[in-house]
Amino acid sequence: MALYVQKFGGTSVGSIERIEAVAEKVKGFREQGHDVVVVVSAMSGETNRLIALANEIQSRPDPREMDTLVSTGEQVTIALLSMALKARGVDASSYTGAQVRILTDRVHTKARIQDIETSRMRADLDQGRVVVVAGFQGVDEDGNITTLGRGGSDTTGVALAAALKADECQIYTDVDGVYTTDPRVVEGARRLEKITFEEMLEMASLGSKVLQIRAVEFAGKYKVPLRVLSSFEDGPGTLITIEDDAAVEKPVISGIAFNRDEAKLTVQGVPDIPGVASRILGPISQANIEVDMIVQNIAADKTTDFTFTVHRNDYDKAEQVLQQVKQELGAREVVGNNKIAKVSIVGVGMRSHAGVASKMFDALAAENINIQMISTSEIKVSVVIAEKYLELAVRGLHSAFDLDDSDTVRE
Ligand code: ADP
Ligand code: ASP
Ligand code: MG
Predict the structure, then answer these.
(1) C-alpha of residue 273 to centroid of ligand 1, in Å
(2) Cβ-based neighbours of 153, under 8 Å, separated by 6 or more
(3) Domain identity same for 260 and 397
(4) Example GO molecular function term (predicted)?
(5) Beta strands in 32-167 (DSSP E)
(6) Which of 113, 148, 292, 379 has the highest local Cβ count within 10 Å?
(7) Does 10 sit in the ligand 2 pocket, CB within 6 Å?
(8) Helix (H, G, I), strand (E, B), or coil: what is residue 46?
C-alpha cells in the first residue's frame, strides 16, 4: 500500500461537478488501500478574480493583505472537496496551510517553504482519513498568511510529498502529461513517457507552465518521484525522472518551451570602457527588475550596443531607469520592443550532439523568421523573435526536430 500526494489544479476543481469527480477518484485510491493527501488549487479563475478585486482599490496593494485575500480561493476548495468526500462515506479533514503549519519565510506573494509540520497529517492518515490541504499558501513565524507565487500549489504538493516521504507526488491537471510542447499551441505535440528533472526544470523556467519551476527544483532536490497526469482520463501520464539509463539513446531535443512575457531594451552607443555593464544593470537590479538574456557587442567606432530582456510588466520601469543611465554614460539612445517572444529547445541529448543550434537557426530561416537574440546553455538554446512569429516558429521547430506525433494526419 502506498502513500500518494495528489495535487489537483484549478480546472480540475473548477465546478462542483469536477470537485465531485475528484472525490470519486480519491475514493477509488482509498478503496485500493492507499493513503492519500490531497492538495488543491483555487477553482479556475478564482485567483485572478481576487487579484482583480484588489486592483480595483489599488494597482499595487499591500502584499500582506494580498496574501490574506488570494489564499481564500484554496480555502473554499478544501472545504468543498472534504464535504464531497464525506458525502461518499470517505473520512476526510481539510487544512489551510497555517493549520498544517507550512512554515515559510516572510516574503509575501513569493514566499519559500522552510519547514512542514507533519504530525497532524500523520495522525489523520493513521486514522484512515484523507488529508485535504490548501495549496499555494503557508504561514510565517508571526502567523501572517503567505503565498508561494502563481502556480504555487504544485510546490505545496511536492513539498508535502517530500516531508511525508510519499511514494509518489501526482500532479493532476487538464492535460494528460508533459508534452513535447504546449499541446494547445501545436496540434501534433506528443506526450512524453519520461522527462529528466533537469529538462523539466529548463522547460518550466523557459515558459512551460505545466509545472511551477520551484516544484520541479524541490522534487529534484529531495528526489520526490513526480508524475503529471490528467484528472479527466486514466493513463500513465509523464514521469519526471533522474537521468538513470545512460545507455539508452536520448532524443536530441525533448521539448520546446516558449514565453511571451518578455520585452527587450537596448542602450545604443555606449562608450566601450570597463564597468559599463555594471553601471547599466546595477540600477536595473536596484529597481528590483530581473534581467534574463544579455547581449553586448562592440562596433568599429569603439562604442557598444547593450541589449537585455526583462519581464514585460517591468518594461516601462526599466525604460525610465535606462533614460537616466543614458545621461550618466553619455550613450546615444535607448530603444525597446515589448512585442517579442522567446523560443527555446531543450534536451539533455544536446550534450552529445553537434550542430543542434545551427539546425534550429536553419529551421527558423526556412520560415523567414529573424533571430534578434540568442542564448545557450549545455542543454538548451533560446532565441528571441518577433511575437507575431511565435506559433510559426514553434511548429517549424517541432517538425524540424522530428517531435511531431506520427499518428497525427496532416495535409
Ligand atoms: P493547473 O491549473 O492544473 O495547475 P496549468 O494551467 O497550470 O494547470 O498547467 C497546465 C497547462 O500547461 C496545460 O493546459 C497546457 O496548456 C500548458 N502547457 C504548457 N506547456 C506544456 C507542455 N510542454 N506539456 C503539457 N502542458 C503544457
Ligand atoms: N491558485 C493559485 C494560482 O492560480 C495557485 C495554483 O493554482 O497553483 O496561481
Ligand atoms: Mg498550474
Answers:
(1) 45
(2) 7, 9, 39, 40, 41, 74, 135, 136, 212
(3) yes
(4) ATP binding
(5) 35-40, 92-95, 102-104, 113-116, 130-134, 137-139, 145-147
(6) 148
(7) yes
(8) helix
209 is known to lie in a ligand binding site? yes
Range of 39's domain? Answer: 3-174
DSSP 3-state assignment of 347?
coil
- pLDDT at 407 (0 to 100): 53
Which stretches in the chain have pLDDT values below 70?
244-250, 406-411
Mutation to probe ligand 2, out of 153, 169, 210 (largest number of atoms < 8 A from CB): 153
Strands (E), 9-82: 35-40
Query: Residues 40-52, buried b or exposed e (16+ Cβ, 10 A)?
Result: bbbbbebbeebee
Distance (angstroms) between ligand 3 centre and the Cα of 42 equals 11
How high is the pLDDT of residue 244? Answer: 62
The answer to whether position 281 is within a domain reads yes
Q: How many residues does the chain have?
A: 411
Query: Which of 156, 88, 394 lies closest to 253 in space, CA to CA?
Result: 394
| 263 and 133 inside one domain | no
d(CA 109, CA 171): 22
**Nearest partner of 155 among 238, 220, 236, judged by Cα:** 220
- Spacing, Cα 216 to ligand 3 middle (Å): 12
The reply to whether 395 sits in an annotated binding site is no
Same domain, 122 and 9: yes
Q: Quick check: CB of 97 below 6 Å from ligand 2?
A: no
Q: Which ligand is nearest to the CA of 10?
A: 1
Q: Give the position, in ligand 1's atom list, of the atom nearest the Cα of 231.
A: 3
Asked if residue 166 lies in contact with residue 4, where contact means CB atoms within 8 angstroms, the answer is yes
- Identify whether residues 158 and 286 lie together within a single domain: no
- Residue 131, all three cell numbers: 488529508
* 244 found inside a domain: no
Of the residues 153, 174, 195, which one is the last residue of a structural domain? 174
Q: Give the pLDDT score at 300.
A: 79
Please indicate if the annotation marks 210 as binding a ligand.
Answer: yes
Instruction: Judge if 161 and 276 occupy the same domain.
Output: no
Instruction: Tell me, yes or no, whether 260 and 169 share the same domain.
Output: no
User: What pLDDT score was predicted for residue 410?
Assistant: 38
169 domain residue, yes or no: yes
- Residue 10 assigned ligand-binding role: yes
Q: Whose CA is nearest to atom 1 of ligand 1?
A: 9
